[in-house]
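Internal tracking record. Fields below are filled automatically when a chain is submitted to the structure queue. Please do not edit lines marked as system-generated. If the sequence contains nonstandard residues, flag them in the REMARKS field before resubmitting.
Queue: standard
Priority: normal
Entity type: single polypeptide chain
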Amino acid sequence: MSEPQWQARFSSGTPITLVAAFTASLISTEPVHRTTKEVPFHTRHHINIATATANQPPGYSPAAPPPARPGRTR
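SYSTEM-GENERATED OUTPUT FOLLOWS
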């Protein structure tokens, strides 16, 4: 396995709520909504641009999980 390309370190004085919020943001599947101008120019080639859509009902997810593969389990 290769080494990570980035890392985060927190001191013992870092508020637990900040560490928890940081961790939650890493595991969230919720897309980050930003305008192109809010993304640094030198990293814009890494973004996916989507058009705005009408408000969806709570719990709506446009992405579907991958189809199950018969005979395979985790």
